[in-house]
From TrEMBL:
The protein's name in its UniProt record: Alanine racemase
InterPro entries: Ala_racemase, Ala_racemase/Decarboxylase_C, Ala_racemase_C, Ala_racemase_N, Ala_racemase_pyridoxalP-BS, PLP-binding_barrel
Coiled-coil segments on the chain, per record: none
Annotated signal sequence range: none
Enzyme Commission number, as recorded: 5.1.1.1
Gene Ontology molecular function terms on file: alanine racemase activity; pyridoxal phosphate binding
CC cofactor: pyridoxal 5'-phosphate
Residues where N6-(pyridoxal phosphate)lysine is found: 34
Pathway assigned to this chain's UniProt record: Amino-acid biosynthesis; D-alanine biosynthesis; D-alanine from L-alanine: step 1/1; Cell wall biogenesis; peptidoglycan biosynthesis
Job description of the protein: Catalyzes the interconversion of L-alanine and D-alanine. May also act on other amino acids.
Species of the source: Pseudoalteromonas denitrificans DSM 6059
A Pfam family the protein falls into: Ala_racemase_C
C-alpha cells in the first residue's frame, strides 16, 4: 500500500507550459527547475518539457544532474558560478552563466578557457539581491564584450521583487529602470518570473523565466492556479491508518491542545512533517477524504496527522486522504500554514513516494 505519495501529473505540466506560451507568445521560455523542480523531481519534469527553449537552475550540481539525466537543452545558472574552478565545467557542459558581481567578472577575465561562455548580465533594478548597479552596466558590458572567454552574444536580465501584487508600483519602476539602463541595445533580455508573465505583459521580453506557474500554482496574491487556467501538477496523498471515536471534551495529538466539543470520529492519516507536510498547518486546515473536506485538528506530528471525520462514520481505514492537489489548491494550504506554496512544494522529503502519471 502506498502511504505518502506525490502524484505528478505530466499532462497538467505540459498544459501549463502551453499557458506560458499563451501569456507570452513572443518570448522564449526558460523553464525554472531549481530545488528539484520545486519538489516535483528534476529530471522527470525536465524530460516532459520538450517545448521549453532552455532550463534554469540555481546550483551547478542541479545543472549537472540534468546533463546526467540526458537533457541537452541550454541550461542557465540563475546565480551564475560560485568559484573560478566551476568555469571549465560550465564550458564543457554548455551551461550559460549569470554574471551579477565584480568577483565573477574578474574570475572570467583572469582565466583562459579556450572557449566562449554564454553570459547573462544581471542588473539590479531595485530588488537588491543579485545584480550589478545600473551605474556599473556600461563598464561590465564593455569588459564582457572585450573578453575572449565570453560569447559576443551577451544577454541581459533583471528580477522583480513585487510582481505578485498588481497594485504595487515597484514593478513598473523596475521595468523603467531596466529600459533606461539598456536603451539602444539590441541584446536579448529577460525580466519576468511567473508573476511577471501573468500580471505584467509589458515585462515579457525576448525570454521569460516561469517557475511556479508551470507547476500549476498561481504566482499572484490571493489567487489559485485555476484563476489563470493553470492545472496543479502535484497531488499529495496518503491513507487513513486508524479511526477512533472520542468524546466531547477529549483531545487529539501532542500537547492535547485541541479538544472536541462533541463526540466525534478522529481519522489518523499517514503523513506528517517528516514527509514535508507543514507542522504549522493550523486546526481547520482542509484535508480531502472521500470527496469531502474535513478539518485537520490538533498538532501535526512527524509521521501522522489527526483529522475530524465528524460524528457519523463514513470512512474506513485505508481510504485515500488528499493533502493538496487539483481539488484542494496548495495556495489554500499555504495560507493555513502561514507560508507560501513555493515552500510547501520544495519541502517534500525523500520519504515520499513519487508517481508520474499522464
Ligand atoms: C526562482 C526564480 C524564477 C522563477 O520564479 P517563479 O516565481 O517561480 O516563476 C525566476 N527568476 C529567478 C532569478 C529565480 O530565482
Amino acid at each position: 500500500m502506498r502511504l505518502a505519495t506525490a502524484e505528478i501529473n505530466l499532462t497538467a505540466l505540459t498544459h501549463n507550459l502551453k499557458k506560458v506560451r499563451d501569456f507570452a507568445s513572443n518570448s522564449k521560455i526558460m523553464a525554472v527547475l531549481k530545488a528539484n523542480a520545486y519538489g516535483h523531481g528534476l529530471v522527470q519534469i525536465a524530460q516532459s518539457l520538450n517545448e521549453a527553449d532552455a532550463f534554469a537552475v540555481a546550483r551547478v550540481d542541479e545543472a549537472l544532474a540534468l546533463r546526467a539525466g540526458g537533457l541537452v537543452k541550454p541550461i542557465v545558472l540563475l546565480e551564475g558560478f560560485f568559484d573560478k574552478t566551476d568555469l571549465p565545467i560550465l564550458l564543457a557542459n554548455n551551461f550559460q552563466t549569470i554574471v551579477h558581481n565584480e568577483t565573477q567578472l574578474e574570475d572570467i577575465e583572469q582565466c583562459d578557457l579556450g572557449g566562449q561562455l554564454t553570459v547573462w548580465l544581471k542588473i539590479d533594478t531595485g530588488m537588491h539581491r543579485l545584480g550589478i548597479h545600473p551605474s556599473q552596466f556600461i563598464n561590465f558590458y564593455q569588459r564582457l564584450s572585450n573578453n575572449p572567454n565570453v560569447n559576443a552574444d551577451i544577454k541581459l536580465m533583471t528580477h522583480f521583487a513585487c510582481a505578485d501584487d498588481l497594485l504595487n508600483t515597484m514593478t513598473q519602476s523596475q521595468i523603467a529602470e531596466f529600459d533606461a539602463c539598456i536603451k539602444n541595445m539590441s541584446e536579448e533580455v529577460c525580466l519576468a518570473n511567473s508573476a511577471g508573465i501573468v500580471g505584467w505583459q509589458q515585462s515579457h521580453g525576448d525570454w521569460v523565466r516561469p517557475g511556479l506557474m508551470i507547476y500549476g500554482v498561481s504566482p499572484m496574491l490571493e489567487k489559485t492556479g485555476n484563476d489563470h487556467d493553470l492545472k496543479p501538477v502535484m497531488c499529495l496523498k496518503t491513507r487513513l491508518i486508524a479511526i477512533k471515536k472520542i468524546k466531547a471534551g477529549e483531545s487529539a495529538g501532542y500537547g492535547a491542545n485541541w479538544l472536541t466539543s462533541k463526540d466525534t470520529y478522529i481519522g489518523i492519516a499517514a503523513i506528517g512533517y517528516g514527509d514535508g507536510y507543514p507542522r504549522h498547518a493550523n486546526t481547520g486546515t482542509p484535508v480531502m477524504i472521500n470527496g469531502r473536506k474535513v478539518p485537520l485538528v490538533g498538532r501535526v506530528s512527524m509521521d501522522m496527522i489527526t483529522v475530524d471525520l465528524g460524528d457519523v462514520l463514513q470512512d474506513k481505514v485505508a481510504d485515500e486522504v488528499i493533502l493538496w492537489g487539483p481539488e484542494l489548491p496548495v495556495e489554500i494550504i499555504a495560507k493555513h500554514a502561514d507560508t507560501i506554496p513555493y515552500e510547501l512544494l520544495c519541502d517534500i522529503t525523500p520519504r515520499v513516494d513519487y508517481k508520474y502519471v499522464e
